[in-house]
Here is the input.
Amino acid sequence: MPSFSLSRMGSLFCHSLCFLFGILFLLSYFDISFLVSLLLLFFMILIWDFVFDF
Here is the structure.
């Protein structure tokens, strides 16, 4: 996969860190399960990377 470069991995890592805090907030606020929060985190990163992929 030549398109999956190191900078893309770094941006995905930053996005996952940002959304991890949001998921922790959702966990404490809405009392949802950890598996559901991980699925939400995964889809949020995919949507974020698709929208902000310049």
Notes: The radius of gyration is 13 Å. DSSP finds two helices and no strands in the chain. The helical segments are 6-30, 34-51.
